[in-house]
Each structure stands twice: as C-alpha cells, then as structure tokens.
C-alpha cells in the first residue's frame, strides 16, 4: 500500500511542477467564439426554461427516493419483527402522501395560472 501511495504522491508532484513550467496560452476572441457549420451564431444559445418543469423534476426525485427507501423493506422483515417493518413502511408512505398533498394544496402541480 505504501509504494502505491509514494508513486501517486511523486507523480502528482511531478505533474504539478510541470504544469507551472508550461507556458500559459491566452486564447483570443476568435478562438472563444462558437463555430457552427461556418455561420456566426445569430442569437443566444440559452433558451428560456419553465421553472415548473424543474419543480416537477425535483418532486419526482424526492418521491422516487422515498420509494427507494421502501424497496428493502421485504428483506428487512426477515431481521426485525414484521410489525416494526410494517410500521416504518407505513411511516414512509404517510410522509410520501403528506408531501404529495402539501404540494397539491400549495399549487405546485398546477400548470394553469
């Protein structure tokens, strides 16, 4: 283990010192401009993005994570009493349902203004 650590340490020190010796290249405006099939870009490459899609994606990730917490519950029932396993599965489902109800009541899932 120690030889690998020493090799990694020496290699990183060599690469860090070589990077200081290499000349820095300052790119000009022509190199920084985008190139697309020989044409200059006419507009901005950034398109407006609705925050509602972002909110729905965050909600999906949160609820998907809570569902992923439920997946090992059948195997957990083998190690703990089944009532305790069912209790924690119920708690996760209640939190999931309360989160969905909260977002629904706050209008987070409404598309029309």
TrEMBL record:
<comment type="function">
    <text>Core subunit of the mitochondrial membrane respiratory chain NADH dehydrogenase (Complex I) which catalyzes electron transfer from NADH through the respiratory chain, using ubiquinone as an electron acceptor. Essential for the catalytic activity of complex I.</text>
</comment>
<dbReference type="InterPro" id="IPR038430">
    <property type="entry name" value="NDAH_ubi_oxred_su3_sf"/>
</dbReference>
<dbReference type="GO" id="GO:0031966">
    <property type="term" value="C:mitochondrial membrane"/>
</dbReference>
<keyword id="KW-0520">NAD</keyword>
<feature type="transmembrane region" description="Helical">
    <location>
        <begin position="85"/>
        <end position="105"/>
    </location>
</feature>
<dbReference type="GO" id="GO:0008137">
    <property type="term" value="F:NADH dehydrogenase (ubiquinone) activity"/>
</dbReference>
<feature type="transmembrane region" description="Helical">
    <location>
        <begin position="6"/>
        <end position="25"/>
    </location>
</feature>
<keyword id="KW-0813">Transport</keyword>
<dbReference type="Pfam" id="PF00507">
    <property type="entry name" value="Oxidored_q4"/>
</dbReference>
<protein>
    <recommendedName>
        <fullName>NADH-ubiquinone oxidoreductase chain 3</fullName>
        <ecNumber>7.1.1.2</ecNumber>
    </recommendedName>
</protein>
<keyword id="KW-0249">Electron transport</keyword>
<keyword id="KW-0679">Respiratory chain</keyword>
<keyword id="KW-1278">Translocase</keyword>
<dbReference type="InterPro" id="IPR000440">
    <property type="entry name" value="NADH_UbQ/plastoQ_OxRdtase_su3"/>
</dbReference>
<keyword id="KW-1133">Transmembrane helix</keyword>
<keyword id="KW-0812">Transmembrane</keyword>
<comment type="similarity">
    <text>Belongs to the complex I subunit 3 family.</text>
</comment>
<keyword id="KW-0496">Mitochondrion</keyword>
<feature type="transmembrane region" description="Helical">
    <location>
        <begin position="53"/>
        <end position="73"/>
    </location>
</feature>
<keyword id="KW-0830">Ubiquinone</keyword>
<dbReference type="GO" id="GO:0030964">
    <property type="term" value="C:NADH dehydrogenase complex"/>
</dbReference>
<keyword id="KW-0472">Membrane</keyword>
């Amino acid at each position: 283990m120690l030889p690998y650590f020493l090799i990694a340490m020496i290699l990183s020190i060599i690469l860090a010192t070589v990077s200081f010796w290499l000349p820095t290249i300052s790119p000009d405006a022509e190199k920084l401009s985008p190139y697309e099939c020989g044409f200059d870009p006419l507009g901005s490459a950034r398109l407006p993005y609705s925050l509602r899609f972002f909110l729905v994606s965050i909600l999906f990730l949160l609820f998907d994570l809570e569902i992923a917490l439920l997946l090992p519950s059948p195997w957990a029932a083998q190690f703990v009493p089944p009532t305790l396993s069912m209790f924690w599965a119920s708690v996760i489902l209640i939190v999931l349902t309360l989160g969905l109800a909260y977002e629904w009541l706050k209008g987070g899932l409404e598309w029309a203004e």
